[in-house]
Amino acid sequence: MDAPSFLTGQFLLAMPGMGDPRFEHAVIAMCSHDEHGALGIGLGATVDGLGFHDLLDSFSIEHGAAPNAPVHFGGPCEPRRGFVIHSSDWDGGDTVDVAGCWSLSTTVDVLRAIASGTGPSRWTVALGYAGWGEGQLEGELVRPGWLNVACDQKLLFETPAAERWTRGFSAAGVDPRLLVTGSGNA
Asked: Taking the model in full, what pTM does it have?
């Protein structure tokens, strides 16, 4: 029997016509996936009118030299919960290594470190996450809804949110303009 294939450290790209408007053009960084379920952070859309400085202000943290980067819509689960996906050159008490591709932190310590200039060299912030229960993601992967692609540091840290979906498909050798929203019958 083959070992299960898990997607931790990869990206999920929403296929056109997947049927869930919350995930239209979604790019999800898979932070955890095992036999018990999965958790990913959406990086394909930003929250209108909310920047990193607003998050710092909500915790009474001085901005320091931190840029007012966009805050991403991480997913529909717990939309007020914050996540920082970052390079592995910083490690806080709660930091989790994600398959050697990036790190994930969820406490205010990483916000303070970024603002003070002592945090990770590359980072992105999101509110909320996408979550799947046991076997749920595997069920979705057998239907035409998601394409998984390998870890890509440029896609994660150097590509603007509005371009991630298209660039993710291009990196996988797929022209998203040629994708259709339905399937046919033979």
From this structure: 0.90
